[in-house]
Sequence to fold (148 residues):
Amino acid sequence: MIQSGPSTSAPTRAAAALERGARLAVLAPSVHNTQPWLLELRGVELHVRPDRSRQLRAMDPTGRELVQSVGINAFVCPLALAAALMVHGELRMEVAGSWVVALVFSVAGMYVGQIVRQRTAEQVFRRAFFIGLLALGTYMCLRGLVGL
Fold:
């Protein structure tokens, strides 16, 4: 399901292309083919979140597969949106450059994370991952407050 949030400007070609791309992203395959996500397009921002009403509790009681499906969709959505913008000639190089760099780093991070996870005990990995997220969150808060 896709929702459009409040827009502060008149529709543009880029906004129309993003809307079409988001409509295609909703149809992406998922575990058990339930498409358990909600997409909300707010201007040029796409918010992806789980739709727990689409969780198959008998096959996925913990919701782990639902979260994996949403995560994969959140990774693939920017690809679909970039393709939609590219097809309509609205993907500018200043946007595409930073997007490609972010994509390369996220793929590299997933690859390294898999290797580390396979070689580390689950409890140790979870604890280290949580500490890393806590440190990142603390840094982001301090940066916002102090201007680091």
Notes: The chain has a mean pLDDT of 80. Helices lie at 13-25, 64-87, 93-119, 122-146. Residues 56 and 118 are 28 Å apart (CA to CA).
